Amino acid sequence: MSQDVPEQVRSQQAGLSDRDPDLLRRMYRMMREIREFEHTASELSSAGEIPGPIHLYLGQEAVATGVSLALGDDDVIASTHRGHGHVLAKGADIDGMMAELAGKETGLNSGRGGSMHMVDFSLGIFGCNAIVGASVPHAAGAAFSSKLDGDDRVSVSFFGDGASNQGVVHETMNMAAIWDLPVVFLCENNQYGVSTSQEDAVAGDRISDRAASYDMAGETINGQNVLEVYDTVREAVETTRETSRPRLVECETYRYEGHFSGEKDLLRDRPYRDEAEIERWRDERDPIDTFRQALVAADVLDEETLDGIDADVEARIEDAAEFALESDYPPGDRAPEYTYAEQSYPDFPAEKY
Amino acid sequence: MSDQSYISTIIQSYQESLADYDDTFVVGEDIQHALMGTTRDLVAEFGEERVWDAPISEQGFHGLAIGAAMDGKRPIIEYQINTMAYMAMDQLVNNAQKLRHMTHGQVSIPLTITVPQAGTPGGSAAQHSDNPYPSLLNLGVKTVVPSTPYDQLGLFRSAVAEDDPVMVFWPAPVIGNRSEVPDEHYTIPLGEADVKREGEDVTVVAIGEKVPDVLAVAERLDPEISVEVVDPRTLLPLDEETILESVEKTNRAVVVDATNRTCGTAGDIAARISDAAFWHLDAPVKRVTRADVPVSYSPPEEEFVIPGEDTITEAIRDVMG
To answer: How large is the ipTM?
Structure first.
């Protein structure tokens, strides 16, 4: 192997022996779907087809993919404001996701939630959440419900390095530990909470060290290596399923784009990270490129097959964008619907004038 | 009919809820030992799996209850003190209250939150003497404030059956009171006011802990002034119709509420009356509220801030001109 092959390719290649080729293919395709979805969402956003800000998941694809493939259909996830990847990987309808971003009636939430609130309870997707850390107790609540029911579902709570400093996250970890809740706390440390580096915001060397405070296992892994994420999370999930003890897994990852879609305009003349840093992550640790190189080098999938997957994914996402653009907006006077379970209360909705 | 204390109807409410709904559990701080007396005997009857003592983690256990509700449970949270809503505000209003709407009806959050020691327990000072409902009403949270044991039992049964979050405020000043309660099962739907006293000259809308004070004032003024006392019982949804009917009969209105004056509940109800019944009014609508200052510990200062019978009497006399 030549000297310029990044370490990450080498380590993934080494981990490919005896893997189920179908699983590897699904990993590649899922990561490509997320990336393509995000590129297209970004284009639609720039073109003014998406009403609000979006928080792109570009660069973090290995985490959602590895976690999702380690879960069963009945398992639950709760996600963050940067949740497209999690929701897509857990199996949500891609047309519905894209239409949701566009605020259309055909969207996952019928256009009500947008980028930061996509849900599909039938798939165990208990919601993205715009409030940093707020969905963490929801995942624990689902685990609590599992415990009461005596079933064997596991909940995965996605949160970021920023949320790791929220009180509610610590409160939830404590409750999960004292009550033996089957929840895996899945920290995506993408290095920045908006514009603040985790180095300036997180005390201690590693977020996973905090697990010790709550008497649970904790570890930090390379979140750019989909195999490592999959292996670690699968073991964590199965152990949690058996023992009903919570765990913390920290994935080191990186977001290529800004915190949200409008950031470039806001911070154009005062960037909080330099381009060289972004390029270094892209060149050496991109989760998709390195995985692809490893697959080819290990003779698992050839370039032609991978190109075929790429083309297929591009067409699929293009269809989703078309579906979103062609779908109708809901009528504005639908706004009061589903505010309450019963809409027949006196004086509801209160008039504007 | 039996003469029942307010707190005994609370205990009965919890027992009924746990017995009637398999998916119900109660979570809160210090409830297994029934610190406030409200959850007495629940653990013995229903076990610790239905009655959870939470750590001091208000945001955390609110969020956990919401997650369980998303998964089909029907949780009840009990506060120990009125201002805990502030600790949990994000989970209450950004999550519990908004999730049905944000998800286009994909999920129900049938969460009941009870607030023993609502209002002014007396000598509790500023951080333990609030009625947090105006801010919650502003954000659309269903709210009931029962002023009698009869109302408490009937409203609780409805609140816990709701598929939305409902806050149940039990005002500390009335929690020792007693009233006749039917032995047979009954419910009071949310959104139905009660005319607590009929009268001809002026309508006084009184909320929660102020209802007994207003009734006492009305007795004292009778027959000089005939006071009709309307207790909304539910603040959201609000029974505007019953209030307006009363005002159209008496042509005068006073609204009495023990929350702050600015952006308070009384201001909102007064505005509704002025808007909808202006041509029936013989005098401007008056509000009797707390002063816009924190509640002091010292008894004379506390008395100064909280509206008492003298202030209520003064307001009634003022609208009578």
So the answer is: 0.94
